[in-house]
Amino acid sequence: MDIDKIRSEFPILARKLYNRPLVYLDNTATSQTPDIVVNEIVRDYTTTKANVHRGVHTLSQEATDLQETARVRIKEWINARSTSEVIFTRGTTESLNLVASSFGGMMLNEGDELILTVMEHHANIVPWQLLRDRIGFSIKVVTINHRGELDLDAYRSMFNERTKLVSVCHASNVLGTINPVKAMIAEAHSHGVPVVIDGAQATPHFRIDVQDLDADFYAFSAHKMYGPTGVGVLYGKEKWLEKMPPYQGGGEMIESVSFEKTTFAELPYKFEAGTPDFIGISALSKAIDFLQRTGIENIAAHEHKLLEYTTRRMLDEIPDVRIFGEASDKCAIISFLVGNIHHYDMGMLLDKLGVAVRTGHHCAQPLMTHFGMEGVARASFAVYNTFEECDAFLDALKRVTAILQ
Ligand code: PMP
């Protein structure tokens, strides 16, 4: 892979921070966006902006075509059975709220049990809690070992006749751990229990085949996979989506409306109330073109080399460094603390040296509580990061450590 060429597709990477080249290591929060995606947004706003589905006029039909072509692209990319199973949302958060509210509301009753894990993002905790407070089921939590891997024996032993649903992240946004979701889904299915997968951290790094995984639902966000902000996807098996009540009501999701009774549109429109961000959706399909052209296996292999190089040098060269998450199967994410240095001070000073890392609880407070911490600093890598940037990060880390320790 020609990383320089790839970098040239991301103009933001040429930016300077405090007179230093920007070293962007906050890719887990959001990735940067290549020209092909930005150009699509500019082109669509410049030539094709019209509301989808409602119009007979040419622009409206073109806008509708853009959206529906993107739906086919995404269906093929994740290997869904049909475009009816691809629902556009505003992001993983909205996708998970949709599943919790609509599917969870249908499946869970008082006294039932839902299985989550301790490494979930708040987006895969809070929607379920809101529902629990209405319905009265209980939430069981799978814990992790010292390497940050799920305790699968504990997971298997949690199933009983009250278990109605499992929701788990494919990859952790803090530990980087890639969970064995295919096996976890098979286990749940052997008990007749459907599984929701939060794929926000998986889709930027590896190819998802929802049929091979046999996931009942799979949620992800465009902005973490080189796409635009404000767009996400919920994949759901048609057999469930058919049975589920709509999540939001409004235009586009109806067949007919009267004050006495409303009937709903067919899938997937039943779950897409209101004007969609069809331009963002079309731009997401360009992000998928980028992933495919670059080769997602090449991306993962490159990121993995950066991860191994940086992890090894941090452990060798930074005294008192602690890295959280040492799973054998791991995304390119390094969550860390050095001695007693506060993660916030660490992040602030790294920024002054041109290095963007994230600090705080990373929307995973239960995981922080598990480790007895309030927060950590996190460096995370994408395809356009280089070994020189890893060196710059390590040099900056040494300087910050020398100042603060
Ligand atoms: N789940 C995980 C694992 C995440 O990392 C994130 C984003 N940090 C989300 C869910 C929520 O994604 P979004 O903010 O794009 O809705």
TrEMBL record:
Catalytic activity, EC: 2.8.1.7
GO molecular function: cysteine desulfurase activity; pyridoxal phosphate binding
Catalysed reactions, semicolon-separated: (sulfur carrier)-H + L-cysteine = (sulfur carrier)-SH + L-alanine
Annotated ranges, domain Aminotransferase class V: 23-393
Residue stretches in coiled coil: none
Cofactor names: pyridoxal 5'-phosphate
GO biological process, one term: cysteine metabolic process
Keyword Ribosomal protein: no
Key words of the record: Pyridoxal phosphate, Transferase
PANTHER family xrefs: CYSTEINE DESULFURASE, CYSTEINE DESULFURASE 1, CHLOROPLASTIC
Protein purpose: Catalyzes the removal of elemental sulfur and selenium atoms from L-cysteine, L-cystine, L-selenocysteine, and L-selenocystine to produce L-alanine.
Family statement: Belongs to the class-V pyridoxal-phosphate-dependent aminotransferase family. Csd subfamily.
NCBIfam families: sufS
The protein's name: Probable cysteine desulfurase
Native source species: Duncaniella freteri
